[in-house]
Design goal:
472 residues, mainly alpha, Growth Hormone, Chain: A, 2 domains, 19 helices
């Protein structure tokens, strides 16, 4: 029997569903743009005559700009106005999307993808901070459930749409199809989101901290993204990773002495542990949506369209679990719900790791996909809640930037680790097995590695929520 009060059962606050819908759609665009090019990459390479090294920058240019600028983007939302920064980000994103769809050359496409990342780095933390400020109490849990649903569905939808659009209309449609959605959101935001309050003049921009952390994140993201291709002992990769670590140390030193730090210590004390777990979840998230379509196409022989369509059950499970996650959290506590989601995710990935070269969809992929989707959706909503738990309105944009940054860095780190694991396993099996069985062994190793990362996240999440928030 549901004994919750009417206030607890309220789906949203008196703000209404309109602002939530437009903010969630903005987030959907960000996640979609991360994954929608994956299946289209072979067609892009053929259409623009790109080398394999250049082709990787269609993905990396977006990830570098997005991951490096999320913290400054979040702080800009707090200082200059969240709606203003959201509209700026949407404008940059829409123009970059149009340029990508019409790109006459590889250089233009790569530059447009970088500009998309800049726009996304502005709009993503601004949209999340607006949600945190506008929805309070039980309504915030429901709003974050919707946020998690569209974030989770966006990854799977990107793979699906990429396959469908590439096969039916060509790779340019992958970009052009998202432009009308961006324009609609841009037109609706001024109608549904209230104007920004007057800017406070008491806080200055931390330029040294902003420059240092941006350079650090660029170096780390580049090193992690390119290490698997260039070799981890390559001077460029070693130099980038070393510079990133040194710059992070310099950033920490600057922040401790700055009167207006980009990342105040109070933020790290409040949500540092949750963001640590978010790094691990990001590693699983990106690794899964990279390796599952590859496994289906390279090992099982699926075409782009079929590989996209088979993501639908997982997308549905992520969406449903994200929307329902606030209910068990209110009844059993946030910590218990988060751990349960991560345990489901671990089990689903371990199950998927048993699929071989001849696995059928119904027997080898469908069951694990549903379990993974349920765990991923639940864990993402609860970790987003934990990553903003106790954050005041003045830091909402920064908290939104931080949670997105840790997920991006985790994704780059996880993909690097899982690629190394998969490659080593494939090379080891190649000597005494067929090419398909060797590839299958590599992908299974990647899924098992992701399961171990998820299990570690479940252990660490025992201390993620603080005090009473863990039980409500």
């Amino acid at each position: 029997m549901d004994t919750s009060s009417p206030a607890t059962r309220a789906p949203v606050s008196r703000v209404g569903v309109g602002p939530l819908a437009v903010l969630a759609t903005a987030q959907f665009l960000v996640v979609l743009s991360t994954s929608i090019v994956n299946v289209a990459l072979p067609a892009i390479r053929s259409g623009l005559g790109m080398s394999p090294a250049a082709l990787s920058w269609v993905v990396n240019a977006y990830l570098l700009a997005f991951g490096a600028l999320l913290l400054p983007g979040g702080r800009a939302a707090d200082l200059f106005g969240r709606r203003r920064v959201l509209l700026t980000g949407l404008t940059v994103f829409a123009l970059a999307t149009l340029t990508a769809g019409l790109a006459p050359s590889a250089a233009t496409l790569i530059a447009a993808r970088a500009a998309q990342g800049v726009g996304a780095a502005l709009l993503a933390p601004a949209a999340l901070s607006l949600l945190l400020v506008m929805y309070q109490g039980p309504a915030r849990g429901t709003a974050l459930g919707v946020w998690g649903a569209v974030s989770g569905a966006g990854g799977a939808a990107g793979v699906l749409l990429s396959g469908v659009l590439t096969q039916v209309s060509g790779w340019r449609a992958v970009f052009i199809a998202t432009l009308p959605v961006a324009l609609v959101v841009l037109a609706v935001v001024p109608r549904l989101v209230p104007p920004d309050a007057a800017r406070s003049t008491g806080t200055r921009i931390d330029l040294p901290g902003t420059a240092t952390v941006t350079a650090a994140l660029v170096a780390l993201t580049y090193g992690l993204a390119m290490g698997g291709r260039s070799g981890w002992t390559s001077p460029a990769i070693v130099g980038a990773l070393t510079a990133g670590v040194i710059l992070l140390g310099a950033f920490w030193w600057i922040e401790r002495r700055s009167p207006d730090p980009l990342v105040p210590p109070r933020i790290l004390r409040a949500v540092g542990r949750a963001n640590l777990v978010m790094i691990l979840l990001g590693a699983v998230w990106v690794g899964l949506f990279y390796y599952l379509p590859l496994y289906q196409q390279q090992v099982l022989g699926y075409g782009p369209l079929l590989a996209g369509l088979t993501q639908l059950p997982m997308a549905a499970a992520i969406t449903l679990a994200s929307a329902l996650a606030p209910r068990p959290a209110r009844r059993y506590g946030h910590r218990a719900t988060l751990v349960t989601g991560l345990v489901l995710l671990t089990g689903g990935l371990a199950w998927l790791a048993q699929a071989g070269a001849g696995a059928g969809f119904a027997t080898g992929i469908l069951g694990p996909s549903l379990l993974i989707g349920a765990g991923l959706g639940t864990a993402f909503v609860e970790l987003t809640t934990a990553s903003t738990d106790g954050v005041t309105g003045r830091d909402a944009g920064l908290a939104g930037g931080l949670v997105n940054t840790t997920r991006q860095i985790g994704g780059a780190l996880g993909l690097a680790i899982l690629t190394a694991v998969a490659t080593a396993r494939t090379d080891r099996v190649t000597a005494h097995a067929s090419a398909s069985h060797a590839l299958a062994a590599g992908h299974r190793a990647a899924f098992l590695g992701a399961a171990l990362i998820a299990a570690l996240a479940a252990v660490l999440s025992q201390t993620t929520f603080r005090g009473a928030s863990a039980e409500r």
